[in-house]
Specification:
Blueprint: E1 2-9, E2 15-22, H1 25-34, E3 38-44, H2 50-58, H3 65-80, H4 85-92, H5 99-113, H6 118-123, H7 131-142, H8 146-200, H9 209-243, H10 246-257, H11 260-283, H12 288-295, H13 302-316, H14 321-328, H15 333-345, H16 348-406
Antiparallel strand pairs: 1-2, 1-3
Helix pairs in contact: 3-4, 3-8, 4-5, 7-8, 8-9, 8-11, 8-16, 9-16, 10-13, 11-12, 11-16, 13-14, 14-15, 15-16
Amino acid sequence: MALFRYKALSSAGETLAGSMEAARVEDVIARLQEQGHLPIEVGSSVGEDAGAGLAALFRRKAFDDAAVLQFTQQLATLLGAGQALDRALGTLLDLPESAESRRVIERVRDAVRGGLPLSSALEQQHGLFSRLYVNLVRAGEAGGGLQPALARLADYLERAAALRAQVISALIYPALLVVMVAAVCVLLLGVVVPQFNELLSTTDIALPWYTTVVLSLGMALRSYGIYLFMALLLALVVAFRELRKPQQRAALDAWLLARPKLGSLLARYETARLARTLGTLLGNGVPLLAALGLARQVVDNHALGGALEAASEDVKTGQGLAFALSRTKLFPRLAVQMVQVGEESGDLSAMLLKVADTFDAETQRALQRALAALVPLVTVLMALLVGIVIMAVLVPIYQLTNSAGVM
């Protein structure tokens, strides 16, 4: 998903401006039109200046994922207790700590009191609630079961957040180790090694080749470190901009899926998210084709997203979902077989949720195994790099001490 900035005219003639997450510009335009607005300008926020980009990175959304989950859980609980919708929304006004969140809930309540269904009121909040969320609520309203739909939606959001949190938590420690390795290498090469270079350059000792390499790297880092850092930063910015292009991102994602271990882990993770989304949508009464279109939003891997779109085309022609997924050859075989069982038994939504549970557990086990191998590997790498630098400096000093003792 990318972040797009937009300007639009409301039905009352007011100019609206804001940002919205979507896969494509066309999705932003369609969403604005669905909300009754006239799009004037829609563009990617990538081209903003660096200051604005950094500000956006640390800016907190008025209604973030945690707030949406809390709102959904509390609203489902209040509706389950028998409260009317507008009264439940009024009760929720006193719960959020942030003024921005209270304003969002107030706008939703006022729209509901004005006669709009909850799904339309949520849709008017300028992208704070995803299309997936809005359509799940709309399906619950159409089926006459808003409270059960919100309860399933809250469960879906909670499980999705838990899976995402587990993945992030598993990657934090290896990422810190990699940062430590880089920091130690920069410190040794940029600060410590140049000091020894001044000492060794005044002697006539023949330096070992690895010492010469380490000293050269240290002096280069000291003299051109700022330029190397700027070049690296520029390369990262260019790479980031290129990866925002669908073709380049799809090519990278396809390459990642083809990696023996990493590709299997990514496929399991994405399959778990996709299966839970599809199962929740079908359980709320959303038709399969519409569910496939909405579920595309949760697939971050563009190669798998393209495969899902191809599978949707096959389903349109009357093919079964399992057959359509198997033709892509990108989704795990076990998931396809379980989907086929669900289709044959007539309970596809329940089987998709079982697929999600299965691949959630497999993703956790795979992450634990990868972490168990990665942490010692990074630790050994750090010790090896530090040892090479120390040996490159101490061996000439030892030779210098011996030659001085002989003389």
